[in-house]
Predict the 3D structure of the following.
Amino acid sequence: KAGVTQTPRYLIKTRGQQVTLSCSPISGHRSVSWYQQTPGQGLQFLFEYFSETQRNKGNFPGRFSGRQFSNSRSEMNVSTLELGDSALYLCASSLTGGGWNEQFFGPGTRLTVL
Amino acid sequence: DQQVKQNSPSLSVQEGRISILNCDYTNSMFDYFLWYKKYPAEGPTFLISISSIKDKNEDGRFTVFLNKSAKHLSLHIVPSQPGDSAVYFCAATTNNAGNMLTFGGGTRLMVKP
């Protein structure tokens, strides 16, 4: 069974640009969550999508947005990039939702903002 | 406001001995706790979990203990193996929070041969 895949794996952008990251969940998984990992703030929840609907949202500015498609694939978008957006962006999928459902993480997309 | 804290950024243990990783939380609404392990260049992988209705859960070499009154949980690894060297994150969630996990800052475990 293929795991969670994220593309691209590495990305370099400049301030003010926008970026779109992609996540393909494990086949059959309907929930996709996004996390940001930085050395200073650790792993922080961005948002969760389930059946194409945003179910939960973390404490991030509106520049961070996402969506989920009917095949459960998800994208997240960051507009007007800032230096502080440099981070590892992780996507996780699970069958449904709830803390007791195991989440499987992808390897992440390393975003560098110059 | 850090709701989940791992106060030890690193821990070094000899192979074969016990590793104890600690985690404290402040939000009494949390009712499900998880531990994840992360190797460099990989995403976190689920290790073990515990519901707030239990105080212990065991899976092979890994045992998680939960002390609700102290808002403290710990992960015991016995015996520790060099392959256990990784960063360990504890995480917590509530029953109605979907997959919104709140993570601690992580503890880097080094198991020396």
About this structure: Residues 16 and 80 of chain A are 4 Å apart (CA to CA). DSSP finds no helices and eleven strands in chain A. The first strand of chain A starts at residue 5 and ends at 7.
